[in-house]
Model the fold of this input.
Amino acid sequence: MKRALTVVGSVAFDNVETPFGVREHMLGGSAVHFSLAASFFTRVRLVGVVGADFGESERAVLSSRGVDIDDLEVVPGGETFFWRGRYDYDLNTAHTLETRLNVFADFKPKLSADSRSSEALFLANIQPDLQREVREQCAKASFVALDSMNYWIESARPSLLRTIGLVDAVLLNDAEARELSGVANLVRAARVIRSWGPRMIVAKQGEYGAALFTDEGFFSLPAYPLEEVADPTGAGDSFAGGFVGFLAAHAGEKLSDKILRAAMVYGSVLASFNVEEFGTERVARLTFPEIERRFGEFQRMTSFELIRPPIV
Amino acid sequence: MKRALTVVGSVAFDNVETPFGVREHMLGGSAVHFSLAASFFTRVRLVGVVGADFGESERAVLSSRGVDIDDLEVVPGGETFFWRGRYDYDLNTAHTLETRLNVFADFKPKLSADSRSSEALFLANIQPDLQREVREQCAKASFVALDSMNYWIESARPSLLRTIGLVDAVLLNDAEARELSGVANLVRAARVIRSWGPRMIVAKQGEYGAALFTDEGFFSLPAYPLEEVADPTGAGDSFAGGFVGFLAAHAGEKLSDKILRAAMVYGSVLASFNVEEFGTERVARLTFPEIERRFGEFQRMTSFELIRPPIV
Done:
């Protein structure tokens, strides 16, 4: 009995420029990166909106990974959300050059009975009122996670706090966790946010990996050490896809620390593949044996044993 | 047969202001923080210089940890190196408010036969010509590590490169490794620096921990998640003390990946204790059982197991 995971978020076309190349009109958006990553672990239902320019080849990328796009609304005559950005050599910061919200500006998520019945739900980075409306429609979801960003922290804080009170997991960048909590120390920032309801906080730390804060303690994992990052776009959403996707497959069970840690590793694995190539290129042709091999590499690069000094 | 480790670096008085308090005239300096941390693993010989203001209580801190200060030169009528700095809430960046080099300005390390005979050597952050002179005097040192900083990378690059060519390990902050190599990607930056001679590069990453780059691969460890960092001064030197101190105890043996990883953990453990209180306060009264307990906590916060998803 394969459980299902509903994701609500953006579907986009991206133009991206990095030191390693330029790509135009690539399939992108948080819900897309998330869905592809999560598809290795559970059935995924994507709720989003696109314009008339969204074509068969884009649908095929999602369908070939088994992503259910029945709830991907098409606005006749509309244009799909468009983002153009540039990364410089450090690749840590995206410089947004152009954003055209297009049909995404008026996005009102419409969930079919199927999407509402999923056992797990991911609220990608959209307006927190919409996130909350979706959350309330998915009464059967026993595991719900959300992502957000500085824009909503600054412009819709009260709504965001209400939504955070309704989810199990919050995924944020370090800087966002600090801004949201008003606390510079990340350990305390996570404690503050958990006091609002969520059982777990995932701090995404870019090239430094990711950290998990729960009642049971702290877990940290480095990022996979890549010598070339072709395109960081979607790394955070791919992480979320691996993390939430794996947990969705366990929705309804007790999510033990062991399961949460494995989810963190799957998230990191998916993020690491995502950035190896542009857009969705790498994850679209990824295989599960590749994922499992990289999981093993994460074990090798983080494991150690106690050796007592020869003389104390 | 206890091996010995010689360290050459600064001995200082520090005035430090952090959000958690203010302290004046604290014992500090890279060689001091390093020596105290390393003293848990091996015999330590400190080579440095102080002024007439360096008193019995400062000596006692070092002596009580067994640090050999026979080569701590005293300049009659001179004043000890003085640093005054402030940390703001993020605690990641030291703001230097005042530096008085005093007797350190004319420091010419003078090594006794004992100091020259040590099996291991740490060249703390001093002028690279001096580092090289010391390195050449310590012919028996089978393990040599070095720290440096942006100031020498910018003002004495050719000399620094020559010195780097003579050591086994280079310890740097991420930003320093990038500046030194001219490469933004840290994995490649470490590869470039290793091509100049050192077998290993340790990238110190502050609140994100530390990473080790060797021929055998990559190892990464988070920092210990402290809710309060009282004073970050000396964290890097304490890390180096734990790391090099543990390796010094194995000098002459093959330094296996297993030994290097344990050294990384000891470095992280010592750094984490160092920042819990001001100056040398915490490490000065640290015990080995406390170190070993925290080593175990590092294992708990980084370990995970492969769990395959229920359905692939």
